[in-house]
Amino acid sequence: MLDLECSFVAGRRRLLPVLGLLLALLPWSGCTHHSQARPKPAVPPGGVLLEGAGATFPSILYKEWFTTYQQQHPLTVITYESVGSGEGVRRFMGRNVLSDERVDFGASDAAMQDAEISQVPEGVVMLPVTAGGVALAYNLPDVQGDLKLSRRAYAGIFLGEIKSWNDPVIQAANPGIKLPKLTIVTVVRQDSSGTTFAFTKHLDAISEGWRSRFGPTTLVDWPGNAMRGKGNEGVAGLLQNSVGAIGYVGYEFAYKYGLRTAGLENRSGRFVKPSEDSLRAALASAEMPANLRAYVPDPPAADAYPIATFTWILLRRNYADSAKARSLRAVFTWALAEGQQSASSLGYVPLPADVAQKAQSALQTITP
Predict the structure, then answer these.
(1) Which residues contact 346 (CB under 8 A, 6 or more apart)?
(2) Mean of pLDDT values over 170-175
(3) Pair type for strands 260-261 and 124-138
C-alpha cells in the first residue's frame, strides 16, 4: 500500500495532481510494501548459489560486479536484493521477516556493531569493498548556478529550523544567486539505512543541535516537512518529481540520474562538491583498524568532500558448506582486485590500496 506521505510536497509552485505524482513514484518503490520471497534461480549442475541482501548505496556497483563475475564463472550464481542496510544485517543474522533463512552474505554502509557480531555464532568478517559519498541533491529548476550550503545551513535544513530557500543563512553563501521564496521539503529514507547512518554521523560531528537530539543512527524521526522514500532509488525518484525539495542520496545515484548536487562547506571552510577526487581526499584520512570498521565523519583535508563512507560486505568466518565458502572467497577476491576498475565509471571510489590489501587478508580467514 502506498505511503500517503509520498504524495505530498509542501510549498510547491507546481503541484502535480496526486494521482500523477503517485504514478510517477511507483517504479521507484519509494513507499512501504511487503513483497513475497523471490523464487530461487536455477543453478547449473555442479554449481553454487550465493544469496546476498542489504545496502542500496552500492547496489549499482554490485549489480555490475555480480553480472560480470557470473558471465566469467557460469557455475557461480549470485543474487542480491537491495533492501537497505538495516534489513541486510537482519537477513545476514537470520531475522528476515519472511523466513528464518539467512542470506550467505549481507551488505551495509553501517558496519556491524559488537553487540550484533556477538549474536553470530560463526563469527563475522566485515570487508570494506568500495566507498562513496552522500550527496545533498536538490530540485530548483529556476535557480541558476551551483548552490552552496554552509554547515549551519544544511544542518539547519534537516533539523527543520531553516524552512525557506531564501533564508538569509542560505543566501549568505550564495550572494550571486537569486533564491526563491519557496518552502523547503526534505527527502529522507523511510527504511533503516546505512546512507542515513553516514549522513547522520556527519551531522553528529558538526552540529551540537543534531548531536543532542538524534546522534548517528540508521533510522530517524525526521522533523519538519519530510517526504520518505524507500532506498536510494526512492529518494532519487522523489527528488526528480518535487520542486523545492532537497534530499540526501548516494552520490552514485545523483550521478546516474543527473540530479543537481550542492557544494558543502567542509572543515576547512571550503565549499566542495562530490567527485572522485574530493571523495578520495576525504577517505585518505581513514585509519583502518583490525576489524576494518572505520568512519570519516568530518575529514580534515582542505579539498575533501565532507560526507564520505566505506561500505561493507558481511561474511561469516565459518561456513558449514565448503563450496559456498570457497565461492565467496573467490567472488570477493575478484571484487577487491579486478572489480575495483569499474567503480569510478559508476560514481564510486576505488578502495585505497592499503585498505584493499587489508580486506584481502581478512577474506582469507574465512573457512568451511
Answers:
(1) 60, 61, 64, 252, 255, 256
(2) 98
(3) antiparallel
Query: What's the pLDDT band for 37 if we cut at 50, 70, 90?
Result: low
Instruction: Return the CATH number of 4-29+133-283, one of 3.40.50.300, 1.20.1090.10, 2.30.30.30, 3.40.190.10.
Output: 3.40.190.10
**CA–CA gap between residue 66 and residue 268 (Å, rounded):** 39
Longest dimension (CA), the chain: 66
Pairing of strands 308-316, 124-138: antiparallel
At residue 101, the pLDDT reads 77
Residues 48-131+307-363, CATH architecture: 3-Layer(aba) Sandwich (3.40)
Note whether 145 and 162 are within 8 A (CB).
no
Cα(73)–Cα(166) distance, integer angstroms: 55
Confidence (pTM)? 0.87
Among the residues of the chain, which ranges form H helices? 18-25, 59-72, 85-93, 114-117, 151-158, 168-172, 194-206, 208-213, 231-240, 251-257, 276-283, 322-335, 353-363
Confidence at 197, pLDDT banded by 50, 70, 90: very high
Residue whose C-alpha cell is 543541535: 209
